[in-house]
């Protein structure tokens, strides 16, 4: 007992030290962002196709706001395709400027704050997950000592990965609204992990409203609320219980499925309905004179699903739809958009249902690959979510190779763009080849992560089986 | 090729996990085989890379006109003696004017302008300022639109361009062809006058013809401040009109406000220069095409000019070559070997025709070396470079007449031929409906009528760098095994993340390289006049101070030996991967830089090994290896390499004068926005430093 107390004391000390270091690094990242924001003269980041897509560009938002101020529909002229709420929120910040040039510093401040908020929420999520990981290992009997040096503080790591990822930093200072979209996603995950149902519903609705694709998160969120946090497969616990010699326990528990908390899930659905009605009402109020909700759906979700803007980006669709014949366009649109749902979402949800947070990571990664208008901000989000599972994914294969691929292709992208747009010696194929290579590496990354996770579960199974034998 | 290499690397990582692979695919087995025997294969591949580079002159293809619409030489020339005598008249007038009026003012410009307007051209004058030396290393990634105008304008020094535009009778004013004659209005020589004569003969013809469908712009660029700057200034104003009234306009009595005229998209541009007499009796036409960062104009433009010059006008056409290589004996031996091999191959099968005579081979290699050199520097070889920034294909034609400038009889004939050449080229370009796109943009020339396309020269580069991922993979496997052996418990947790520590060091040194690259910007801001030597001393001291700070910071220090830290194999593997990525990126930006960089960096990276164990073992083989890597690392340092190249050229430089020279050279690189500067600072220097770290690794 005494020893345990001592351990706890040491642990608390270590935790304090860790959190101290965490705050130093996060403040440093904030200062770094401000430094870049204050010297933007030569780096015109906001015009990079890798950073700002038609959906996330702040310049387009400013244009939409200007149109609205001039009593026109913000969606007229196919400039703005974002949410009307974001328009009312960020729009006023874009007009305060000096000498006719709009001042981006206020908006950048909002983005920096949202980045910091995301990091803090990620950290809290990670701490919950780490606690659950320890608990599960102990329940399986694989973790003898109450503290183990081998377990990494995944919350801190994920938060720092988010803050110091070059992708996050670039999309933060590059005036794209993706930090806010990412914040919404992280809020929903945080809410679900800490079982704050209204918050989770709010995050989900906001994320869906802003960029549509996070709607897929509804599956992992329901699993999270219904089954609880990420854990090894249920079967293992039953085995362990057998080993601990509780034959008196009736056979019922062995055969029971996971207890699914219907009540919480219904609660969640209720709140989802409430928030969605709330958001829709707000939107319709804001767009009353300009065509109402119908116009909004057409210009935002319609724009996303129809892939109307074929300007180059780091995704894989623009080139394809620029080349596709008109009569087959609808067919391919349906095939591509449904591909994600049928072939990725459902099988993965079945296979990984005991790890809902990991499912969320996989879904976000897939949507970042197969999105109509992806940017590096999306990659930043799923990379930091991935870091939440460092403990489980220590044996990931090809990690160095994938890392080199990411670096190579992200550096190659501006070069290819330059070759095509400015020098004229390359063509669209160059840039698209780069986009395909990047997508390939993202696929490889997701595939390796998933297989590493499954291997981890296998390894746990093996370990418990050995223990049972002994 | 790069993808294949990555494959190999990937497969290797797979084997390191020790998981049994059930019947791998053939490509996987091939990858594993290559990685397992990486020392042999790396030597083979590197040697093959160098051999392929030597073979390039043999593999050069003859040029051909790719775009059918060009039809060079199909129309009869309409140029008459009357036009040529118009040109002679202008030259005579300018000469007389020069004799009577010594010195300043814009009178010569006015005289040319008067001539132009007599030929029913629209004439205007443009003032510009010589640009100061600015440091914008990242300019490469942005377009030309981000040009910043200089704030303070002084009337003391500025130039005046004269521009005349002939509107095409069949055109809609949306396209144009530009003719440029750089001309020093104050002290232009007799030969420079001849270029004005040629173009004015042509201009007098073009003002009458009915077939013109693109407007013709004749820019007489004021070359007092170099050939490049006036053309760049004119192009900047042509493409990005500024709505602010420049103070420059008020400087002189010559009012240039509000009369800048345009003539639509520029389809092509020809820069004509006439200088010094040629050594031969015939007239020599030299073609210059390299723009900044190794960009070339479309090959069709060179083809058209070359075809017309050789087959119609009888010029002796040449491109630049490294003269010292022509007499080098080793090249001669290589050429003779290739010739003999070609002959043998020809006897075996008469269809194999790859042998070329040794003399031709030497000629081709000298031209190739010169092309590679100028592309690698990334500095344009003439005013045509300014056009490339706006995606306009342009070349400089430099004609060296074979007669003294006062020979009237030959001058008339010279004008006729020169302007017929230009007329034919313009007629061809005039036929085009689209931009030049049919032929190659990525090529190097080995003679005016022979070229090596990107598909061929990339092979040499790919072979050279192919050994990098192989060696990286095999080192990675070795390093992982060594780590697992040395640390039993803690490494267990991070099976596949052992490279993180090494990656941190590599990243730290690349960051250092980035800072060192940006340092000259701050050094240039230091108040006061400093000689290049002092500046380079400042740069050197700050960089080494930074390096010392980096080394002393725990965690980033590459020299620290921690028990569970990195072992050198993994560090070397990550270094090689970084070098591979950097070289591949650079090969896309500028092939020539990457090729020369790879020749230096690949052996250095491959041979780098800790010298401590080698010294301890005292075996001849390892001592020799250590010695080789020491020598390579010494040569690999940019300053020393610069000194060696200078020494080979014949200018001995030692000590501080070397620093000054080096600084001036780098200054010229960044003044021309050359990506080579970025390469040296951000790829070569960090990799070199990492090799030094590996050499002195306390293993």
TrEMBL record, chain A:
GO terms for biological process: GPI anchor biosynthetic process. Keywords: Endoplasmic reticulum, GPI-anchor biosynthesis, Membrane, Transmembrane, Transmembrane helix. It is a multi-pass membrane protein. Its main location: endoplasmic reticulum. The chain crosses the membrane at residues 20-39, 199-227, 268-287, 299-319, 331-349, 361-388, 400-422. Belongs to the PIGU family. This is GPI transamidase subunit PIG-U. It comes from Cardamine amara subsp. amara.
TrEMBL record, chain B:
Residues 1-20 are annotated as: Disordered. Keywords: Membrane, Transmembrane, Transmembrane helix. The lineage of its organism: Eukaryota, Viridiplantae, Streptophyta, Embryophyta, Tracheophyta. It comes from the Eukaryota. The chain crosses the membrane at residues 30-56, 454-477, 506-524, 536-554, 574-602, 623-644, 676-696. Pfam families: Gaa1. This is Glycosylphosphatidylinositol anchor attachment 1 protein. InterPro entries: Gaa1.
């Amino acid at each position: 007992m005494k020893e345990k107390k001592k351990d706890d004391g040491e642990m608390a000390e270590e935790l304090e030290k860790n959190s101290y270091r965490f705050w130093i690094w996060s403040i440093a990242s904030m200062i770094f962002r401000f430094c870049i924001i204050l010297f933007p003269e030569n780096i015109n980041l906001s015009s990079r196709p890798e950073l700002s897509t038609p959906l996330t560009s702040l310049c387009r938002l400013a244009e939409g706001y200007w149109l609205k101020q001039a009593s026109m529909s913000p969606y007229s002229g196919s400039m703005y395709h974002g949410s009307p709420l974001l328009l009312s929120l960020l729009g006023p910040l874009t007009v305060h400027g000096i000498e006719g040039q709009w001042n981006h510093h206020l908006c950048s401040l909002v983005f920096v704050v949202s980045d910091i908020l995301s990091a803090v929420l990620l950290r809290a999520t990670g701490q919950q997950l780490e606690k659950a990981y320890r608990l599960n290992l102990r329940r399986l009997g694989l973790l003898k000592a109450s503290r183990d040096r081998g377990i990494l503080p995944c919350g801190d790591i994920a938060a720092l990965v988010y803050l110091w990822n070059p992708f996050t930093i670039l999309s933060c200072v590059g005036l794209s609204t993706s930090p806010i979209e990412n914040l919404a996603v992280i809020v929903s995950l945080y809410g679900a992990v800490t079982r704050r149902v209204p918050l989770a519903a709010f995050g989900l609705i906001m994320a869906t409203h802003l960029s549509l694709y996070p709607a897929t998160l509804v599956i992992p969120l329901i699993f999270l609320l219904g089954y609880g946090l990420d854990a090894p497969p249920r079967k293992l616990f039953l085995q362990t219980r057998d080993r601990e010699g509780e034959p008196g326990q009736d056979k019922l528990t062995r055969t029971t499925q996971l207890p699914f908390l219907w009540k919480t899930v219904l609660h969640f659905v209720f709140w989802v309905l409430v928030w969605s009605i709330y958001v829709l009402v707000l939107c319709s109020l804001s767009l009353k004179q300009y065509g109402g909700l119908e116009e909004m759906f057409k210009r935002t979700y319609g724009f996303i699903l129809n892939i109307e803007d074929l300007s180059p980006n780091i995704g894989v669709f623009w080139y394809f739809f620029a080349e596709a014949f008109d009569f087959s366009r609808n067919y391919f649109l349906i095939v591509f958009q449904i591909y994600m749902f049928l072939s990725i979402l459902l099988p993965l949800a079945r296979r990984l249902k005991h790890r809902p947070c990991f499912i969320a990571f996989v879904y976000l990664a897939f949507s970042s690959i197969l999105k109509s208008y992806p940017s590096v901000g999306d990659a930043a989000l799923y990379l930091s979510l991935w870091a939440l599972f460092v403990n489980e994914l220590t044996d990931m294969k090809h990690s160095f190779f994938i890392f080199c691929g990411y670096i190579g292709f992200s550096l190659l992208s501006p070069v290819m763009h330059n070759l095509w747009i400015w020098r004229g010696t390359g063509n669209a194929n160059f840039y698209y080849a780069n986009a395909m290579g990047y997508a390939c590496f993202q696929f490889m990354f997701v595939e390796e992560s998933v297989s590493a996770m499954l291997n981890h579960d296998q390894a746990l199974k093996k370990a418990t089986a050995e223990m049972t034998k002994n | 090729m790069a993808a294949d290499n990555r494959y190999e690397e990937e497969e290797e990582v797979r084997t390191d996990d020790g998981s049994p692979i059930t019947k791998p695919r053939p490509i996987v087995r091939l990858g594993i085989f290559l990685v397992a025997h990486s020392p042999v294969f790396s030597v083979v591949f590197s040697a093959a890379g160098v051999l392929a580079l030597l073979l390039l002159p043999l593999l050069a293809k003859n040029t051909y006109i790719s775009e059918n619409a060009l039809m060079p030489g199909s129309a009869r020339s309409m140029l008459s003696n009357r036009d040529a005598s118009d040109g002679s008249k202008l030259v005579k007038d300018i000469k007389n004017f020069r004799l009577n009026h010594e010195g300043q003012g814009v009178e010569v410009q006015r005289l040319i302008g008067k001539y132009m307007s007599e030929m029913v051209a629209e004439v205007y004058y443009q003032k510009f300022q010589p640009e100061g030396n600015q440091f914008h290393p990242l300019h490469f990634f942005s377009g030309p639109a981000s040009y910043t105008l200089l704030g303070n304008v002084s009337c003391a020094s500025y130039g005046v361009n004269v521009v005349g535009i002939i509107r095409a009778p069949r055109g809609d004013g949306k396209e144009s062809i530009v003719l440029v004659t750089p001309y020093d209005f104050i002290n232009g020589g007799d030969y420079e006058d001849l270029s004005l004569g040629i173009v004015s003969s042509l201009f007098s013809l073009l003002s009458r013809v009915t077939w013109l469908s693109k407007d013709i712009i004749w820019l007489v660029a004021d070359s007092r401040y170099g050939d490049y700057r006036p053309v760049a200034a004119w192009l900047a104003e042509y493409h990005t009109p500024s709505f602010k009234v420049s103070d420059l306009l008020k400087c002189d009595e010559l009012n240039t406000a509000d009369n800048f005229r345009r003539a639509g998209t520029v389809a092509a541009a020809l820069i004509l220069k006439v200088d010094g007499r040629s050594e031969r009796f015939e007239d020599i036409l030299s073609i210059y095409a390299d723009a900044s960062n190794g960009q070339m104009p479309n090959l069709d433009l060179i083809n058209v000019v070359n075809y017309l010059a050789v087959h119609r006008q009888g010029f002796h056409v040449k491109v630049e070559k490294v003269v010292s290589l022509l007499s080098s004996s080793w090249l001669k031996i290589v050429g003779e070997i290739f010739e003999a091999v070609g002959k043998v191959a020809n006897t075996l099968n008469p269809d194999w025709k790859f042998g070329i005579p040794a003399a031709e081979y030497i000629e081709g290699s000298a031209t190739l070396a010169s092309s590679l050199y100028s592309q690698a520097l990334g500095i344009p070889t003439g005013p045509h470079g300014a056009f490339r920034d706006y995606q306009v294909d342009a070349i400089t034609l430099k004609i060296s007449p074979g007669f003294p400038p006062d020979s009237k009889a030959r001058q008339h004939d010279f004008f006729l031929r020169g302007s017929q050449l230009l007329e034919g080229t313009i007629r061809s370009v005039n036929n085009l409906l689209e931009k030049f796109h049919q032929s190659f943009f990525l090529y190097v020339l080995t003679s005016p009528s022979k070229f090596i396309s990107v598909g061929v020269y990339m092979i040499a580069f790919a072979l050279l760098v192919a050994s990098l991922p192989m060696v990286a993979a095999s080192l990675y496997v070795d390093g992982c095994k060594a780590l697992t052996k040395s640390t039993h418990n803690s490494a267990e947790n991070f099976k596949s993340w052992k490279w993180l520590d090494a990656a941190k060091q590599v990243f730290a040194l690349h960051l250092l390289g980035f800072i060192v690259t940006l340092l000259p910007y701050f050094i240039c801001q230091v108040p006061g006049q400093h000689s290049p030597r002092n500046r380079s001393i400042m740069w050197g001291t700050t960089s080494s101070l930074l390096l010392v700070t980096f080394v002393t910071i725990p965690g980033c220090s590459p020299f620290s030996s921690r028990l569970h830290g990195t072992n050198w194999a993994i560090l070397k593997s990550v270094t090689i991967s970084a070098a591979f990525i950097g070289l591949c990126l650079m090969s896309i930006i500028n092939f020539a830089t990457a090729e020369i960089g790879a020749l230096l960096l690949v052996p250095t990276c491959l041979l780098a090994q800790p010298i401590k164990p080698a010294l301890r073992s005292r075996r001849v083989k390892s001592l020799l290896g250590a010695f080789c890597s020491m020598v390579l690392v010494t040569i690999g340092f940019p300053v020393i390499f610069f000194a060696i190249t200078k020494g080979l050229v014949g200018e001995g430089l030692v000590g501080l004068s070397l620093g000054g020279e080096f600084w001036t050279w780098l200054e010229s690189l960044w003044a021309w926005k050359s990506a080579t500067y970025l390469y040296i600072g951000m790829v070569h220097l960090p990799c070199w430093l990492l090799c030094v770290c590996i050499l002195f690794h306390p293993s």
